[in-house]
Automatic annotation (TrEMBL):
<dbReference type="Pfam" id="PF22381">
    <property type="entry name" value="Staph_reg_Sar_Rot"/>
</dbReference>
<protein>
    <recommendedName>
        <fullName>HTH-type transcriptional regulator SarZ</fullName>
    </recommendedName>
</protein>
<dbReference type="InterPro" id="IPR000835">
    <property type="entry name" value="HTH_MarR-typ"/>
</dbReference>
<dbReference type="InterPro" id="IPR036390">
    <property type="entry name" value="WH_DNA-bd_sf"/>
</dbReference>
<feature type="domain" description="HTH marR-type">
    <location>
        <begin position="7"/>
        <end position="145"/>
    </location>
</feature>
<dbReference type="InterPro" id="IPR055166">
    <property type="entry name" value="Transc_reg_Sar_Rot_HTH"/>
</dbReference>
<keyword id="KW-0804">Transcription</keyword>
<keyword id="KW-0238">DNA-binding</keyword>
<dbReference type="InterPro" id="IPR036388">
    <property type="entry name" value="WH-like_DNA-bd_sf"/>
</dbReference>
<comment type="similarity">
    <text>Belongs to the SarZ family.</text>
</comment>
<keyword id="KW-0805">Transcription regulation</keyword>
Length: 157
């Protein structure tokens, strides 16, 4: 495929996918007073893939300042707890608060309603989607690294 056509198709497909994801996910998470990103933070905390602001940056691609502000907001709203590290005060550890656990439990139950649809899809489609997303992320990481090298800068997380 010609690079120009690839770029144009990717732009269209990513925008359409983003729209579909928002239409499917936003009503579920917004009913709990959360954004999709905030729900993903709670899920990361529950699964143990996120335990501090730095790991949140790596899991989401957010910058340190944005991740820190998001966590402060979520703490104010009672979804998570933040604590400064005892050995290094720059490290802010995160954990689920009761409100976050409850909201996440309700969100998961609501998303289970989609299982009726998902069970009709062949498993190889899931593998193809995940493989395609991983490939897209790799391409985009290379583009971002090129941008940073071209600017002489460094990435924040």
């Amino acid at each position: 495929m010609e690079l120009r056509l690839f770029r144009e198709q990717v732009l269209r497909d990513i925008q359409l996918t983003k729209t579909y994801m928002e239409k499917a996910m936003d009503p579920v998470v917004q009913s709990e007073g959360l954004t999709v990103l905030q729900a993903l933070v709670l899920l990361g905390l529950e699964q143990g893939t996120v335990d501090n602001v730095s790991s949140l940056c790596h899991a989401t691609g957010m910058g340190q300042a944005n991740a820190s502000n998001l966590c402060k907001k979520m703490e104010r709203e009672g979804f998570l707890l933040r604590a400064r590290g005892k050995e290094d005060a720059r490290v802010v550890t995160l954990q689920l608060a009761d409100r976050g656990k409850d909201a996440l439990s309700r969100i998961k139950k609501k998303f289970q309603a989609y299982d009726a649809v998902l069970q009709t899809i062949p498993p190889e489609k899931f593998d193809a989607v995940l493989g395609g997303i991983a490939a897209a992320q790799e391409i985009l990481r290379r583009i971002l690294a090129y941008q940073q090298a071209d600017k002489g800068g460094t990435q924040s997380c």
